[in-house]
Amino acid sequence: MRIAVITDIHGNAAALDAMLEDAAARGLRSIICLGDIASGAGWPRETVEMLQATGIPCIRGNHDRWISEHEPATMGKQDRLAYDELSAEQRGWLMDLPTSMQPAPGVLAVHGSPGSDMQNLIEEVVAERLRPAPMAVLRERLGVDGMGARVVLCGHSHRSGMVQVPGGPLVVNPGSLGLPGFRISREPAHRQEAGTPHARYAVLHLDGDAVQVELLAIAYDWEAAARRAHDVGFNAAWPHVIRTGLLPESA
């Protein structure tokens, strides 16, 4: 059994379209999305429509939740763009998505951690950067449900990686499909950069007791995505990180 895993699209329909083409070329028929679908400097409505049209099972991310829970006047720019461009029915669809799913026996899929859509699972903030979390911290975040799984799929951090927990699951984060870097000013303040603009996703291979994972980084028209960010009024940092995978100060 093979499962393609995407997460943190953030309205980047160009990246999603390229991923769907790549998955089809690889013969991947099962795809799941781990959330943070529409909010971003891109195409919120088109992204939701693509996922709905393909019937890809999705989990609700924190940004998917925020565009229903927060008042529009208090929203950050990426959430406000999604709120304005999505219909009430589409916003309701995002809000009603499950917070976890089991796409295969022994596989638990979440957005952040099993207990929170705002908590990175395999990373912690050190000196305003994401670094691997200590194993004791990871076990605590996994909780009973996570530790009892064979594989845990997570997103939220935009940082691709895998950790095999001794006596516990293989934890896999595909990295962000549509937003390769960001800066968070709220505490704990931190930044994340993928280092390249590629769209990232993972393929989980399940064959009896054997588990294999491919972490993929595919090319797409990131110049079109960067132009879209500029055209919808986002400052220079957004187009820059989309076309380079780096924040302006790093480049």
Walk me through the topology.
Layout: E1 2-6, H1 13-25, E2 31-33, H2 44-54, H3 62-69, H4 77-85, H5 88-95, E3 100-104, E4 107-110, E5 123-126, E6 129-132, H6 135-147, E7 151-153, E8 161-164, E9 170-173, E10 181-184, E11 190-193, E12 199-207, E13 210-218, H7 222-231, H8 237-244
Parallel strand pairs: 1-2, 4-7, 7-9
Antiparallel strand pairs: 1-12, 3-4, 5-6, 8-9, 10-11, 12-13
Helix pairs in contact: 3-4, 3-5, 7-8
Keywords:
four-stranded mixed sheet, alpha/beta, globular, five-stranded mixed sheet, Purple Acid Phosphatase, chain A, domain 2, 251 residues
**CATH homologous superfamily of the domain at 2-100 and 174-244, by name?**
Metallo-dependent phosphatases
| Shape, per Cα inertia axes | globular
Order of helices and strands: EHEHHHHEEEEHEEEEEEEHH
CA radius of gyration: 17 Å
What fold name goes in the CATH topology slot of the domain at 2-100 and 174-244? Purple Acid Phosphatase, chain A, domain 2
Strand order of the largest sheet: 3-4-7-9-8
Low-confidence stretches: none
Q: Which architecture of the domain at 2-100 and 174-244 does the CATH hierarchy give at level 2?
A: 4-Layer Sandwich
Based on DSSP secondary structure assignment, what is the total number of beta strands?
13
The helicity comes to: 25-40%
**So how many helices?**
8
Characterize the largest beta sheet: strand count, sense, and whether it forms a barrel.
5 strands, mixed
Tell me what you see in this structure.
It contains eight helices and 13 strands. Helices cover 32% and strands 25% of the residues. The N and C termini lie far apart (40 Å). It has a domain at 2-100 and 174-244: Metallo-dependent phosphatases (Purple Acid Phosphatase, chain A, domain 2). The protein has helices at 13-25, 44-54, 62-69, 77-85, 88-95, 135-147, 222-231, 237-244, and strands spanning 2-6, 31-33, 100-104, 107-110, 123-126, 129-132, 151-153, 161-164, 170-173, 181-184, 190-193, 199-207, 210-218. Helix 3 (62-69) crosses helix 4 and helix 3 packs across helix 5 (88-95). Strands 3-4-7-9-8 form a five-stranded mixed sheet, with no helix packed on it. A four-stranded mixed sheet has the order 2-1-12-13. Strands 5-6 form a two-stranded antiparallel ribbon. By secondary structure, the protein is of the alpha/beta class. InterPro entries: Ap4A_hydrolase (IPR050126), Calcineurin-like_PHP_lpxH (IPR024654), Metallo-depent_PP-like (IPR029052), Pesterase_MJ0912 (IPR011152). Pfam families: Metallophos_2. One of its GO terms (cellular component) is cytoplasm.
